């Protein structure tokens, strides 16, 4: 018989409704045998669609049984049959009955092809036997003459069947073959005697039990693999049987029947869809080894929309994962078993699967050729990025003892690819903090391309991360490393790179108010380079740091984590993490008065006509919570907008609180740095400073301030730091203590006036502990009560001012005899009074010369004869 004929015999489009049938089966016949339930909640929380499904070992067992023992058929309207065997058996019996009932086989055969209508109403598997399946088949048999196109054939067929009325078949065996696959035998079915009414329009209910046995398992495996790989676009099934027939008392002989069915496109069954509704991982003891393994409990649901009923026994499966290459053998990861499953007609099916991983196989952890990633890394990479990966399920060759051997052989010969849904880790980080922050500037001696050519950050990291609810086993994070993008107000500041593994500690925090748990991870990062990529964003960050504005940095990172589990150490690469890091400002009031710099131990290193090179020891206070290491930095010293000199610091460690003994080298050369204008400003600054006025210095970076980072230096230059001019430490006067210190420099400690000799000598205090200062000219006037002149000194013979306290020579004084100030001097003879002084002074330090004005007040003066 032809394929086209077969299709017309077993599946027309305009089937009349039966008087004995209450409703059409078209709706459920057009659905897949194991369809998806749109009302069932998915495990991953997403909505189902037609192109996505989630597989599991339990569903694989359903699919194996379905493919090995049943099939479906669909006509152009989409009507599908429950199983290939049921269709073949009923079709062959019906055709045999009709053909054997007449004396005109050719006409009857044509009539049978077009008039026969079989509507399956039920298929259930009673039990699994040692050799096959005991199945119950139910259907409605009917002859519909209106489907026959040829009038003569239709009339002869109706007449003959009216006379014969009914026909009975004897017990027979049906064999089902696949012609395109070498005519392999895929199965056999035993059919008991069947009696049907063959009159037009009469419906006969057929209900019998048949023993179905699989045929060539290797051939079935080949077909299954083609189906799973999507290569099965069309398949033809041929059924053969020798059927003995009789009508009433008349034996009609034995008929050899062969019928072919062609399935293509939507006629071929699709892989069923099902939803994972529960997933849980936990530690379990493994009795065979005495060790602890990892167990996965999975619950899934699917919908049986067909009138098919059967019970699946407990089955065992091997869970396999991909290797490095497509041609490499799969890696056996876990063993899984399913509970016995009862499948009811047109109802939801719930399946429970248990899988156990006893140990991580070495090939799973071994790096792939030409790649530092292992198969486990590749699998986890897809999972944590939310992309579906593929695992493979194969029937175990050693299932439970209750599983029939033929079923074991069948399911163990087929490997099913199973899409495994990824799980995004968005919003996993609940809290992210960075404390004990330490900054390091670039080192000028760094090798080219090394991390130390960039600013580096060290600090203590505390992360609170939400654990997925399905993880119910011990985890311990031992080491971490990361590459992070740092953002400020949504704009990228730069990249923070942590190449080396950093030690970490973790602990689980169970939430009593919910079913979830958190993990607290602590780690200390050391020397993570910060590569600034946007100078404008960096300027905004510095502005917030320097001027006390709230500062929140966002960190988007890819983190590599070493995790200790009962299965050993697992390395998870490029796990996404993000968090917000609050940074406290350096200055809380917009200024740096709290720095309180103080300079002592000033040492002149070299001089020229315009330049002083000196070294000093600086003490200051760090009011922030941050510490820093400065291998090298050079800063311009500025006053009133002009550069007067520079200062260089090397190998400085800035700690919290008081910092003492910081060695700084500096230069004073206004004319070279800023020209004539700067020279004038520098002279004015020196005059104000030695006179005790409140002065300030501005420190600002420049493009050469920080090695290898010209853009960083230029960016920092936008934020000049202004501080009070550091006080030069001078020895205290006898009997003076720190409480008497007014914070102003006192280079003239006291004076002695001699009336008869008209001279004055001064006690001078030098801030230089190692260098002698020469005063080359003095032109000054002393005043009483700020306005009354006392006397005038104009002296141009150089004299020394040695380090520490020293006496000047007696300097000639021209008295203001007609002034009130002179009278006060005479009245103070043998005593003391307070005088002011104003004038100009020229000094020389080695090759350097400088003139400045001086205005002092409250100078203690003794008056002697």
Count of runs of 4 or more consecutive helical residues: 14
Class based on secondary structure composition and strand pairing: alpha+beta
Uncertain stretches: 1-82
Mean pLDDT rating: 77
Number of E-type strands? 45
| Beta fraction | over 45%
Overall, the morphology is rod-shaped
State the major sheet.
15 strands, mixed
Q: Radius of gyration over alpha carbons?
A: 50 Å
Head-to-tail CA distance between termini: 151 Å
Assign a percent range to the helix content: 10-25%
What is the number of independent domains? 5
Describe this structure in words.
With 865 residues, the protein is of the alpha+beta class. It folds into five domains: 229 residues, no CATH class; 146 residues, Immunoglobulin-like; 154 residues, no CATH class; 136 residues, no CATH class; 127 residues, Immunoglobulin-like, CATH 2.60.40. 17% of the residues lie in helices and 48% in strands. The protein has a 15-stranded mixed sheet that branches. Strands 2, 3, 4, 5, 6, 7, 8, 9, 10, 13 and 16 form an eleven-stranded mixed sheet that branches. Strands 36, 37, 38, 39, 40, 41, 42, 43, 44 and 45 form a ten-stranded mixed sheet that branches. Helix 4 runs antiparallel to helix 5, helix 5 crosses helix 6 and helix 11 crosses helix 13. The protein is rod-shaped, with a radius of gyration of 50 Å. The N terminus is likely disordered. Keywords: Membrane, Transmembrane, Transmembrane helix. This is Pre-rRNA processing protein.
